[in-house]
Amino acid sequence: MASSEDQNKRRKPNILISGTPGTGKTTTSVALAEATQLRHINVGELAKEKNLHDGWDDQFDSYVINEDLVCDELEDAMEEGGNIVDYHGSDFFPERWFDRVVVLQTDNSVLFDRLSKRGYPETKIKNNIECEIFQVLLEEAKENYPEDIVVALRSDSIEDMSRNVATLTEWLRNWQPVS
């Protein structure tokens, strides 16, 4: 949880939306940003745009994020508050940055279809499905943040995503910085 000193600097909370690729992180983050006027930060896109990576990984068909560079780039914005950070992992971000950590979860058959439509190679699909089965990202979030700020939300359908945006918008309405 953010320390009271960090929260006093922030008038708006920071939310991390994480989950296995294909669970709807970006779709949910964009919709939540529109509903709440918070700033959406897609870490993968930011890393690509600002060269905050250590090159391309052919095996996983993605950039290798340089976690230190990403954290340095985000530090000021995170201290200011009012951010929705969209990234599959959660373990390298400072605990103090987030007031809510959301892990989106999707049924394996739905996830398989979404990743197949993206044209992911079979090995990448298998890796991501296994990650979802074993709840790797939920466990990672629970290990790195206070349990009371971590929530798992179902993300199988448009209705689920809409409900998640409504739930998080309501949470935001009730959020108060620690005095």
From TrEMBL:
Region (LID): 117-127
Listed EC numbers: 2.7.4.3
Record-linked InterPro entries: Adenyl_kinase_AK6, P-loop_NTPase
Top-level enzyme category: transferase
Gene3D superfamilies: P-loop containing nucleotide triphosphate hydrolases
Binding site for ATP: G22, G24, K25, T26, T27, R118
Subcellular location: Cytoplasm; Nucleus
SUPFAM superfamilies listed in its UniProt record: P-loop containing nucleoside triphosphate hydrolases
UniProt GO molecular function: AMP kinase activity; ATP binding; ATP hydrolysis activity
Primary site of residence: cytoplasm
Region: Disordered, residue numbers: 1-26
Pfam family for this entry, one: AAA_18
Presence of the UniProt keyword Ribosomal protein in the record: no
BP-aspect Gene Ontology terms: ribosomal small subunit biogenesis; rRNA processing
UniProt subunit comment: Interacts with small ribosomal subunit protein uS11. Not a structural component of 43S pre-ribosomes, but transiently interacts with them by binding to uS11.
Alphabetical list of PANTHER family matching this protein: ADENYLATE KINASE ISOENZYME 6 (PTHR12595:SF0), POS9-ACTIVATING FACTOR FAP7-RELATED (PTHR12595)
Family to which this protein belongs: Belongs to the adenylate kinase family. AK6 subfamily.
Protein name as annotated: Adenylate kinase isoenzyme 6 homolog
Species of the source: Turnera subulata
Gene: AAK6
